[in-house]
Amino acid sequence: MRCSLGRALDVIGDWWSPLIIRDLFLGIGRFDELVEDLGISRNLLTRRLNLLAEAGVIERQAYQLRPRRWEYRLTAKGRDLVPALLALTEWGNRWAAPEEGPPMLFVHTGCGGPVTPTVVCSECGRPLQADEIRAVAGPGGAAGPGTRVLARRLTLPH
Amino acid sequence: MRCSLGRALDVIGDWWSPLIIRDLFLGIGRFDELVEDLGISRNLLTRRLNLLAEAGVIERQAYQLRPRRWEYRLTAKGRDLVPALLALTEWGNRWAAPEEGPPMLFVHTGCGGPVTPTVVCSECGRPLQADEIRAVAGPGGAAGPGTRVLARRLTLPH
Questions:
Q1: Where are the domains of chain A?
Q2: Which residues in chain A are closer than 8 Å to B115, comparing Cβ atoms?
Q3: Chain B residues with CB inside 8 Å of A80's CB?
């Protein structure tokens, strides 16, 4: 896949991985805690943790030696993924929250306020909307699996 | 799942769905085009399109009557998902792009500039970073599958 969305999904590309990353971000990092929190099988969790570690998104550290027990935490690459997952969580809050409201809210310790993660344009700072965004060809070339039709349609940046 | 990330992933929760949404956003909406662009099997694409339509993320319209052929497009709910996917694409550009650079770039027609989708705090406007965000309990209550440990740890908002 040439597409960066495709490559991002290669890393976090299933239902469990984003939830594991969320838990590590929120400080739930021990194997048994992850099993309990997510209701995931031990086998499946082991596989996902290995894949995330291979992708450089998480790393592990022993917190007990006999028997050895591991705690997992996000790497810089993994922490950098959190804002995009928060933007996705916010979409879930808007369109798929329980009737009583969102189960979790976020506080930005930088400014102290409750935060609605918002995706904005880096240039003008305005919230991005789908109908105001146009895709253009980048230096990497779009042709390839996952972008066969797309590559023919992309205009060059002016 | 109580968690809004879990519920969001319930809607778009596999590798193909976000790429289908990306293609619809970029104007690739006919069944045969989607098959060609993504290299996805016709059976699998049919299943994913049906699930996305049930979730209210896409809708279909006939563009030819005999034989009837369908074109798919994003609903308001689906268009609202695009900024979060752009934030995820941007993460892919930073951490997983081909050596030559990103295959695709985005232009914000609102301001005319090339855009780096950025997730910011709705209150202070600063880019969100994982270590500056704290989760607190929301009105929906966090207890439930996918948040069993988490619910015990969330503090109430002050």
A1: 1-80
A2: 121-123, 128, 133
A3: 91, 94-95, 130
According to the CATH classification, is domain A1-80 in 1.10.10.10? yes
What is the tens place of the pLDDT at every residue in B61-114? 998 899 988 899 999 999 999 999 999 999 998 998 878 888 888 899 988 888
Q: What is the pTM of this model?
A: 0.89
Interface A-B, measured as beta-carbon pairs within 8 A, has a size of 375
How would you class B55 by CB atoms within 10 Å of its CB: exposed for 0-12, middle for 13-18, buried for 19 or more? middle
The per-residue pLDDT for range B47-76, each reduced to its tens digit, is 999 999 999 999 999 988 999 888 999 999
Separation of alpha carbons B140 and B99, rounded Å: 44
Task: Decide if pLDDT at A43 tops 60.
Answer: yes
Spatial separation of the C-alpha atoms in residues A158 and A4, rounded to whole Å: 21
What ipTM was predicted for this assembly?
0.88
Question: In terms of CA atoms, which chain A residue is nearest residue B74?
Answer: A130
- Residue B7 · residue B1 · CB < 8 Å: yes
Of B28, B32, B62, B59, nearest to B45 by C-alpha is B32
Distance in angstroms (rounded) separating the CA atoms of residues A145 and A2: 7
